[in-house]
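Colleagues,

For the teaching module next term, I've prepared a clean inverse folding example: a structure given as tokens, and then the sequence designed for it. I'd like students to try predicting residues themselves before seeing the answer, so please don't circulate the second half yet.
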């Protein structure tokens, strides 16, 4: 039974764009109309955000809450709608201790190297009330020839050696360099020293924190480094992510499904449809789609049809009734679900 009079239907959100020194205009290739002129370097599009407070180290300081872009709930914040219709919107999913939605979704455009950085380790977060874990996954949407990411510190490097390398401007040789191509997915648990390399466009799924400690910024000036905090947090050595990155096929009735990441905070599956499909759509727990290719629409008793295409993000609430999905041939999307809630799916 519905717990409110809210219309329940798939939600889209107004992107929250972030200008970054390392950003560019590649998000225009996803059909985005970016703010500013061609000299405005947009590094991030926050697709679904519900943070009561952002970190000054991440370039913020205030709240960031997504605003609904479609249907009768347009103009309201996601947080407000959750408050009015919690079980219809969240099902059994619990919020964060401060009452926020438990993931943050972004697109990132790295036209230059991002700073080498780390997010708080569990031990550091336990000891500092203003620091929050940030485990994340990057799905590579596009990559220039030769593009790489940096994922961990090479085996045998000590904190003392790493600090000396920072002082001598030779950090890159100590990092694990990973070549990337479209379709790759990488999980980076909190405490992993990492950076996106130049020429990479990614979809990012992460826990809702932007506490970031920069340890090296490729010679750029004007941005604060946090060397002491970073070295305290870095898990020295390669991240042990084998249990989190299964990259396995999952049986599906109408789509090819590849399980990309499963961790305690979120699960990411890639769905791909070869031929046009129509399918009943029903979930008992919330699901988020980040559309990679193609087009489709979802109809339900709360909306005659919510259309979607490449580069769009949709939140599908469990309270949706009589859902019907139609997709064109060649449509693909990332489906983000929540292991901490009861499993549900359409496969």
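(Answer key — instructors only)
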């Amino acid at each position: 039974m519905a717990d409110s009079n809210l219309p329940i239907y798939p939600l889209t959100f107004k992107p929250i764009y972030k200008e970054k020194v390392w950003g560019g205009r590649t998000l225009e290739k996803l059909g985005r109309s970016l703010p500013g002129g061609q000299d405005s370097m947009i590094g991030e599009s926050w697709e679904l955000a519900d943070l009561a407070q952002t970190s000054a180290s991440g370039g913020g300081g205030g709240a960031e809450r997504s605003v609904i872009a479609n249907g009768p709930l347009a103009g309201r914040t996601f947080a407000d709608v959750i408050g009015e219709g919690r079980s219809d919107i969240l099902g059994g999913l619990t919020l964060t201790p401060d009452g926020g939605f438990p993931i943050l979704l972004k697109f990132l455009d790295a036209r230059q190297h991002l700073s080498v950085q780390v997010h708080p380790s569990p031990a550091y977060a336990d000891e500092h009330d203003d620091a929050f874990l940030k485990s994340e996954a990057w799905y590579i949407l596009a990559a220039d020839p030769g593009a790489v990411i940096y994922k961990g510190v090479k085996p045998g490097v000590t904190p003392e050696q790493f600090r000396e390398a920072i002082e001598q401007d030779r950090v890159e040789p100590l990092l694990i360099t990973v070549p990337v191509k479209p379709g790759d997915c990488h999980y980076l648990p909190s405490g992993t020293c990492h950076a996106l390399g130049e020429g990479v466009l990614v979809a990012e799924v992460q826990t809702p924190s932007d506490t970031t400690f920069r340890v090296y910024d490729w010679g750029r000036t004007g941005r604060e480094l946090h060397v002491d905090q970073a070295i305290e947090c870095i898990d020295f050595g390669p991240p042990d992510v084998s249990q989190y990155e299964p990259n396995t096929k999952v049986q599906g009735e109408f789509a090819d499904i590849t399980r990309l990441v499963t961790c305690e905070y979120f699960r990411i599956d890639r769905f791909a449809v070869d031929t046009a499909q129509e399918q009943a759509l029903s979930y008992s727990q919330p699901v988020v789609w980040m559309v990679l290719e193609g087009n489709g629409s979802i109809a339900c008793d709360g909306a005659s049809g919510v259309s979607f295409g490449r580069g769009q993000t949709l939140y599908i609430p469990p309270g949706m009734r009589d859902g019907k999905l139609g997709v064109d041939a060649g449509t693909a999307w990332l489906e983000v679900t929540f292991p901490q809630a009861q499993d549900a799916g359409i496969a």
